[in-house]
Write a structure and sequence with these properties.
- By secondary structure, the chain is of the alpha+beta class.
- The model has no long low-confidence stretch (mean pLDDT 97).
- The protein contains nine helices and eleven strands.
- 28% of the residues lie in helices and 23% in strands.
Length: 275
């Protein structure tokens, strides 16, 4: 089976994915879908094979999404697909099809999950950041615990249920940091985000956050929340906005972080998780 990629050459994320596919030794069939959009049956199959909802594949930024009223929750999947066929710019990108699965690769790092052979050398994106590989780890992982202690972040609840933690590395195996979340349905509390000291100040943190948000998205989260005492500006640059605690759902306020592990002075921030 040949790897196929639905590509927009004007999109940096799409270009980064294509570059990594080629670095991995693939010779993908590249379909510039704005000029050659898929037919209805193909688009329906791509979305079904990706395991995503039709609405989650809709691109909202830089498209006629609002003008067409596509934010109306009453619209059916068939109507949404009809809009995507009429306006291919509404199809989010890039979609990659390999023998290991079909995936909407946003951020570009997640393409590694459908590659048979991941390059074991450093590959940089256009903006100079490395591709990131996320691996799930246990909450009591000794290195994670020490990194959080060094960063003066809470550690007493790491082994409790409902938490997911990840270690992040480059393709060549250089450690970049850690992150985690606590999920409650469509809400998720982002926590334990730490960049390795030697990689701070290089823009790595926002890339780790993007990969972590995608991990949360893939398990059904659509709104992210977090508490921070001194990193509000960093998170706001990634789309989080300060909100009052009255605006948070009860399940977020009931977390141990909100209930006392973080000081009452910690700022609460939130953002929608979209691709």
């Amino acid at each position: 089976m040949r790897v196929t990629m639905y590509h927009n050459p004007d999109c940096g994320t799409s270009r980064n994915v294509l570059a990594l596919l080629r670095e991995a030794g693939e010779h993908p069939l590249v379909i510039e879908y704005l000029q050659n959009p898929p037919d209805r049956a193909t688009l329906e199959r791509l979305i079904a094979d990706s395991g995503m909802a039709v609405r989650d594949v809709l691109r909202t930024k830089g498209t006629p999404y609002k003008e067409l009223g596509l934010d109306d929750p009453a619209l059916s999947d068939a109507q949404l697909i009809g809009a995507m066929l009429a306006h291919p710019i509404l199809i989010n990108r890039p979609i990659v099809v390999t023998p290991r699965g079909t995936r909407l690769c946003r951020p570009s790092d997640v393409v590694t999950g459908v590659l048979a052979n991941i390059p074991e050398r450093e590959v940089l994106k256009e903006e100079g950041a490395p591709f990131i590989v996320a691996r799930r780890i246990a909450g009591d992982n000794a290195e994670l615990v020490q990194a959080l202690r060094d960063a003066k972040l809470p550690t007493s609840d790491l082994s409790e249920s409902g938490r997911s933690f990840f270690t992040f590395s480059t393709l060549a195996g250089r450690h970049l940091g850690y992150g985690g979340f606590e999920q409650s349905g469509r809400n998720v509390l982002i926590r334990s985000l730490v960049v390795a000291p030697e990689h701070r100040g290089k823009g790595i943190g926002r890339n780790l956050l993007a990969v972590l948000l995608r991990e949360a998205f893939d398990v059904g989260a659509r709104t992210g929340w977090l508490l921070t005492t001194n990193e509000s500006s960093f998170f706001e640059k990634s789309g989080f906005k300060p909100v009052s605690r009255d605006a948070a759902p009860a399940t977020i306020l009931a977390t141990r972080q909100a209930g006392g592990l973080c000081p009452s002075s910690a700022a609460l921030l939130s953002r929608a998780i979209t691709l």
